[in-house]
Write a structure and sequence with these properties.
Blueprint: H1 2-26, E1 32-35, E2 44-45, E3 53-54, H2 60-93, E4 109-110, H3 122-131, H4 134-146, E5 151-154, H5 162-180, E6 185-190, H6 193-204, E7 209-215, H7 223-229, H8 237-247, H9 252-261, H10 263-277, H11 279-290, H12 295-298, H13 303-314, H14 322-336, H15 338-347, E8 351-358, H16 379-382, E9 387-388, E10 413-414, E11 424-428, H17 440-450, E12 466-469, E13 475-477
Parallel strand pairs: 1-5, 1-6, 6-7, 7-8, 8-11, 11-12
Antiparallel strand pairs: 2-3, 2-4, 9-10, 12-13
Helix pairs in contact: 2-11, 3-4, 5-6, 8-9
Length: 478
């Protein structure tokens, strides 16, 4: 009898241990890779040495000197002298940020990186939590929800070839899989991180990816880089007034007075005349060498404009830039089949979601700056193809979307034209990369990651396709 009881107890204990083991397996956390976006301030010359300094030479005295030199040059050298002075000033300001004719950095520029899980950087993690907005907010929220030991933050030199950055992403993915024992990772790619993540997926495949959230990302590139590299720059009075009224609302009356008196229009005409007259000189002497050699910017150019942009920037000197052009051509070749690639990825079981903001103007210096956006990128492109009214406009009272129910209540967005019309969310009045630490928007972001299967805009009534946010990023339904 004792032997029987012992056998029963042993069986019960074995079952309990086995059940516990399965329970632990069920509670395993999928490691999370967060790919940050473009950050001018992060670029540093001679990082970690006594000579460390920001790559962007934005010190007060050189700027004052540059402005004074421009005025003096205009007085004594006329318009030609002024333009030469401005080109020299801009070239000097961005000198340390320039890349060479192969697309490699000229100066010893790098960024602070986190090659290990964020649990290894408690002080940095505390600083990110204290900041709590944009990418720091994403990292801080992730550390609380899945554990800092499961969070990997990919920072990088955004100027460089996306496939160079893809190597860094792959390193984090492999480390995360090794340390966690998981066979999959989740990815949140923020802003320019969308381009970098696409390069990773192209180069290394997606078999190790459980889900991917494109958050305010360059999944479809950006018009600002597209138009700037294509020479389509200029200023429009109404667009500028809309931007100033939004960006500096306390001075709205001043902008209206300046507009009424004709001062704004006169300044804009003057600026446009200079830009058009000296465009070739400005681009060849300044834009090409300072920005046209950055592969990261070329990755945002639209496929339909790419060849024309290359001709405009490099012209007859294209052979000198053969190394750079070979690099930037590679990502453009991928972009030609990008949509099919993403659709295949989803068909093969990767869960993909897109979150974008709208109802803000964008920087008013390029041809398509009339678009709706989030002050940084354009909603049409962040959403992978939505039909979006111009900023301050609607699609019209009679507008009918191709798919019923895909028109936003304010008639600004038609989601039926998105690449992923069932997996794309629009948050009105949210900023670029919206994820304040502890906010409802952060809650939604991590709901997307934790959802069992592929989430869509009908998966949870709390998170419909169209929502709006307040300043604290609380979410509301229309």
């Amino acid at each position: 009898m004792k032997r029987f009881i012992s056998l029963v107890l042993a069986a019960v204990m074995l079952f309990a241990c086995t059940s516990s083991a399965f329970a632990v397996q069920e509670e395993e956390v999928t490691p999370l890779i967060i790919v940050r976006g473009l950050d001018f301030a992060a670029l540093t010359v001679d990082l970690g040495t006594e000579n460390e300094k920001p790559a962007l030479r934005a010190e007060a005295l050189p700027i004052i000197f540059g402005v004074c030199n421009t005025v003096i040059s205009a007085v004594f050298g006329g318009m030609d002298g002024m333009v030469d002075a401005v080109c020299d000033f801009v070239s000097d300001l961005f000198a340390d940020m320039a890349c060479d004719k192969n697309g490699d950095t000229v100066a010893n520029v790098s960024v602070v990186e986190y090659p290990l899980a964020m649990s290894n950087y408690p002080e940095d993690l505390a600083a990110l939590k204290a900041s709590g907005t944009c990418e720091p907010g994403v990292v801080a929220e992730a550390a609380d929800r899945v554990g800092a030991e499961n969070v990997y933050y990919v920072t990088y030199d955004w100027r460089l070839d996306p496939y160079t950055v893809a190597e860094k992403i792959d390193d984090r993915v492999e480390l995360a899989l090794e340390e966690s024992g998981s066979d999959k990772v989740d990815i949140i790619c923020c802003s320019l991180g969308g381009v970098m993540t696409l390069a990773y997926l192209d180069e290394y495949g997606y078999d190790k990816v459980e889900s991917c959230v494109f958050l305010s990302s360059t999944i479809y590139g950006s018009y600002v880089a597209n138009d700037a590299l294509g020479g389509r720059v200029g200023f429009d009075k109404d667009i500028l007034n809309n931007f100033l009224a939004y960006a500096v609302p306390d001075l709205d009356i001043l902008w209206k007075i300046l507009d009424f008196t004709g001062i704004t229009g006169g300044l804009i005409n003057f600026a446009n005349n200079i830009t058009e007259t000296y465009k070739a000189e400005i681009y060849k002497g300044t834009m090409r060498n300072n920005f046209g050699t950055m592969p990261g910017l070329w990755a945002m150019v639209q496929p339909e404009d790419y060849e024309d942009a290359k001709k405009f920037v490099f012209g007859e000197d294209a052979d000198e830039y053969a190394g750079l052009i070979k690099r930037i051509d590679k990502f453009q070749q991928f972009r030609l089949g990008r949509d099919e690639f993403i659709e295949d990825m989803m068909a093969d079981g990767v869960y993909v979601s897109v979150v974008t903001s709208y109802n803000s103007p964008v920087v008013p210096v390029y041809e398509r700056s009339y678009v709706n956006g989030d002050m940084v990128l354009e909603t049409e492109l962040m959403s992978a193809g939505a039909t979006v009214a111009h900023y301050g406009k609607t699609l019209g009272d009679d507008y009918v979307p191709a798919i019923p129910g895909k028109l936003s209540p304010d008639k600004v967005i038609d989601a039926s034209t998105c690449l992923l019309s069932e997996n794309t969310w629009f948050i009105k009045d949210a900023p670029h990369v919206p994820c304040n630490y502890g906010s409802e928007l952060a809650e939604m972001l991590f709901w997307l990651l934790s959802f069992e299967g592929q989430p869509n805009v009908s998966s949870d009534e709390l998170y419909p396709q169209f929502q709006y946010a307040d300043a604290e990023q609380n979410l509301y339904h229309f």
